Each structure stands twice: as structure tokens, then as C-alpha cells.
Amino acid sequence: MNISRYGEEGIRILFGEKIDLEIHERVRRHYFFLKSLQLEEITDIIPSFRSCLILFDRKKTSCEALTASLREKEFLIAHIDIPEPKTCEVPVEYGGESGFDIDFVASHTGLSEDEIIEIHTSVTYKVFAVGFLPGFPYLGILDQRLYVPRLETPRLRVPEGSVGLAQLQTGIYPFESPAGWRIIGRTNKKLFDYNKEPYSIFQIGDKVRFIRA
After folding, report:
1. Taking each helix axis from N to C terminus, what angle separates 102-109 and 113-121, rounded to the nearest 10 degrees?
2. What's the mean pLDDT in 82-110?
3. Which of 82, 90, 156, 170 could be joined to 32 by an S-S link, Cβ 3.0–4.6 Å?
4. Are strands 125-130 and 87-94 parallel, antiparallel or unpaired?
5. pTM of the entire structure?
């Protein structure tokens, strides 16, 4: 494991330098391994595309002691059971008022609206990370034909359920919020519920398919 200090109360385990399904699977396995240890000195574990960030309580451990402890336990990774990823279907109303950036995507890519929708719905995406907002899934890997840049100036708000594109990712805004991604549609599916555990319908490693509503 490539472990390094991350601020005063964190260490980061880095698994690679790119967005990649193999690297993602290593992140996912380590994330569930770290959770299974149930170490009281660890206060949070945050997986991302290429790494896991571990936050710890400085009153109970140090960066050096926690790093040494994790290295001692590394052999256990091969023996843990990790949950099977769920598959979730997300119905989307594309274009029009629901997907107000789809004309820009068509102009930038040279594709028609129907081609954009066909490509976007033809892929089974992986949840690489959940963050930015509670329940916001970073989904990939997006077909390169749909590559578009982020907005230079983010919008102050987009509606709940907006489905967006940014570079080689796609995602869904679980709440009305500011947004810098190109919005191509909207779903009525509820992604996050404060009153019902596990709150977010997605976790790292889950699979997502978009369906034209």
C-alpha cells in the first residue's frame, strides 16, 4: 500500500494515477477491508477514484502508529468478504426543459440528441465514489464520444434529479444545488433519504443503468 500523511489527522492510501476499473476494484476492496477492522481510532474512511482517505483521532493514535498497524493487517485483505454490487436502473427524461444542455452537447460532440441518448443509455456505469452532495454518484466510465468540458462558471442551481456530464463522468444531483456539469436530463428517482438508512441508494462499486423515460 502506498500510504502517506494527509494533513494533521489523515492518511491517504493511493492505488494508481488514473480512473481505471482495476484501480477502482482495489480501492473498493480496501475500503471494505478498512471498515471491517472497526478500529476505534479511525473516525472516517472516504474512498475516491484512486485512493482511500482515512481520518483518525489524534488522541488515540498517530500517523506513524496507524500506518504501521495497517501494514501489519494488510494480509487480511485477501480473506474478507465484500458485498456484491447492486444494479440500479434510473429512468431519465432527456432533453427539453429537463436536459437544457443537450443542445450544447450535440454541438460540441457532433452527435444528434437521439445519438447522445442512445450512447448514454447503452453503458452500465460503476459508482466510483459518492460525494460532493450526500448521495451524489460519480459514475464512469463515460463513452469518449460524450466528452464535454465542465461549465466555466457553475450555475447557482439545477433541479433535484438532474443528470449531467463532465469530461468522462456522468452523475445525478440528488438535491437542488449549484452545478458545473452539462445537464442532459432529469430523473424522479430519489437518491438520498435522511429518514431511511442507509440514506444513499448508492455505494462505491454499485452499477447504474440509465433508461429513457
Report:
1. 90
2. 96
3. 82
4. unpaired
5. 0.90
